[in-house]
Amino acid sequence: MNGKRGRPRNVETQQAILIASYELLLECGFDAVTVEKIAERAQVSKATIYKWWPNKAAVVMDGFMSAASRWLPLPDTGSTYENIVAHAGNLVRFLLSREGKVITELIGGGQFDPALAEAYRTLYFQPRRQEAGELIRRGVAAGELSGDLDVGLIIDLIYGPIFYRLLLTGEILDDAYVRDLVGAAFAGIRKA
Predict the structure, then answer these.
(1) Angstrom distance (rounded) from CA 61 to CA 124
(2) Which of 24, 61, 73, 120 is 20 to 30 A removed from 127 (C-alpha atoms)?
(3) pTM of the entire structure?
(4) How far apart are the C-alpha atoms of 110 and 23, rounded to whole Å?
């Protein structure tokens, strides 16, 4: 959301726009979604959409994240290892779902559309990295993980292979893979 000043958003109108953008994304794909189609489906003016979002990519990603957020809760199991397994496992299940498959399209489209790339980095990937970083920092604070970790590097180490398989190799992504992946990473980052 772009943070422009002015009248506060009408919650019902905002929800109608987010739902419309998400439904169109699933039905048509990102390239076929237009602000005109979102406005028509949500029964609002294009000006209303542009008042709250700077471009199509921002409103579509907001709609996508609004719908997808239920898939990605931040776990609190009492164990850093289990938290990361649950978080990464939720991510994998989401990426393999009908809704999550849209991410691969958005990543591909972002290679040619800088606004889309910025929107998915800002609205999807950075929040996921922050969540993972929070789980790792909690593990350090609890004495479960080494205190001298480069948190960003550990996030890349654990979550990067998931996207490598998703986008490049096509190898199996499942709970067993996630548990093996996190176990291998934790062998090097657990506090001795």
Answers:
(1) 8
(2) 24
(3) 0.79
(4) 20
